[in-house]
């Protein structure tokens, strides 16, 4: 069976814990994972998760591996590395997930404004008709946010807001995080057991 390749992009929206948990699960599934982190994403990782990450690409890659393991194949690319393979349609991954997705990133993807590797990789997914999943973490949404999301949804982009459910009776913050991550994994057909499904045992 072919190893699936996923790009995970972390932006400066609140909720970087979702991305960390998602990467753990993808690596556990033996997937190949390429990670992008914006400058604001590093700031949120520091503020919300206490992770003082940064530096050269190899340094960040090692920081990721120490925190998340390397059960599959983990690679980090700096957002200014426009020569990375994922910047080309000939090397498009199986899916790209922006978790969490800031409204600024969402709007630039919607407008085709590919000014960095994250935006270029998203543009590649659109032009190659590959799965692109955005996980916005913002509230309330204004009309501009909603119009951009509707436009992208009509182009086939999956919009999976970071909105945990409660029917599975979560007991911890980890349960809430796992619910959202499970929904994201569902959107790219990755099997998991992160939450009890409605009507399940």
Name the CATH homologous superfamily.
Answer: Flavin prenyltransferase-like
Number of strands: 6
Mean pLDDT: 94
Strand order of the largest sheet: 3-2-1-4-5-6
- Strand-pairing-aware structural class: alpha/beta
Mind telling me the C-alpha Rg?
Answer: 16 Å
* CATH class category label: Alpha Beta
Count, helices:
7
Topology:
Blueprint: E1 5-10, H1 16-28, E2 32-37, H2 39-49, H3 57-68, E3 73-76, E4 95-101, H4 103-110, H5 117-127, E5 132-136, H6 143-154, E6 158-159, H7 173-187
Parallel strand pairs: 1-2, 1-4, 2-3, 4-5, 5-6
Helix pairs in contact: 1-7, 4-6
Polypeptide structure, described:
The chain is α/β, with parallel strands linked by helices. It has a single domain (5-187), classed as Rossmann fold, CATH 3.40.50. The chain is 41% helix and 15% strand. It contains seven helices and six strands; from the N terminus they run E-H-E-H-H-E-E-H-H-E-H-E-H. It has helices at 16-28, 39-49, 57-68, 103-110, 117-127, 143-154, 173-187, and strands spanning 5-10, 32-37, 73-76, 95-101, 132-136, 158-159. A six-stranded parallel β-sheet has the order 3-2-1-4-5-6, sandwiched between helices. Helix 1 crosses helix 7 (173-187) and helix 4 crosses helix 6. The protein starts with a strand and ends in a 14-residue tail after the last helix. The mean pLDDT is 94. This is Flavin prenyltransferase UbiX. Its EC number is 2.5.1.129. Residues 5-187 form the Flavoprotein domain. Dimethylallyl phosphate binds at residues 167, 183.
